[in-house]
Amino acid sequence: MNPFRTVLKPGVSKHTLSLGDRIVTVGSCFAEAMGARLLANKVSTLANPFGVVYNPHSLHKAVLYAVYNEPVPESTFLERDGLHYSYDFHSSFSAGNRAELRKRITDCLGATHHFLKDARAVILTYGTAWIYTRNETGEVVANCHKMPSQLFTKSILTIDEIVASFGDFHKRLREFNPSCVVILTVSPVRHLRDTIEGNSLSKAILRAACGTIARSFEDVEYYPAYEIMMDDLRDYRFYKRDMIHPTEEAEDYIWEHFVATYFNAETRAFFEEWKGIRAALSHRPFHPGSASHQSFLRDTLAKLEHLQQTVNVEEEMKSLRRQIESHRA
Description:
Distance between the termini: 58 Å
Number of helices: 10
Structural class: alpha/beta
Largest sheet: 5 strands, parallel
CATH architecture of the largest domain: 3-Layer(aba) Sandwich
Radius of gyration: 22 Å
Order of helices and strands: EHEHEEHEEEEHEHEHHHHH
Strand order of the largest sheet: 2-1-5-9-10
CATH class of the largest domain: Alpha Beta
CATH superfamily of the largest domain: SGNH hydrolase
């Protein structure tokens, strides 16, 4: 029977990942969605530590801040409406004074530095090739923080500029952690504020740059999240009501494809087992004190005890024990 769609079948990566590997996700809000799924499945993950960052130049810059674990320049700080921000970080990094903000950023960079040192993979998700440059300094910003538009010049990165920026980033990352691989993705999130035409141009530049980069480095791969959304799913029902962000169903589909591509058989088997346990943990009974539910809790606890040598399930076990104890006769 004709499926009336083009199914993008998972390949098998030469850079196989396992449950014990450390993974860092960085970039657009799609990086947060994938990072959340890695964490939910007990993979040691640092999910978007710098907040949402869209353009490749700012993304590379943020990771290199963590590589060198050095203070960010004072010139990147700004104040608006009584709150302090940094042009190189997402607006979630804000504080009532500069010292507090500097500490938050320093703590973040320090934690990322130590996690990144032993990371097996960094997943970079590029969101847009459009950039904003500060007229005062000539620096590309990660976020304009709603400052007046006349302070910036909007332009679009070229393929060559992205490739050159990645080349410098890659060299420094390899010096810091030679065993770390890079997985590139283009975010399927639509940037319609740049117009439909502008978004299409931006995504095309990002995709072409990723292709050039992946062909140039043995330890870099491109993962086709964008193509899965555009050509495999290819339907507005897989977008949320804003018609910009993929639905949870679409993200789950891409996640399952990613798992099949990158994780080894042992880890995939664990994910399947953990999927059932997660469903059991989220179960909300009508009669929590009933004998049948208490038996269900004890069975689930036994499964967790079996897994505790593999992953950290201490919090889940504590929760079940509290539920059992609270209804013990």
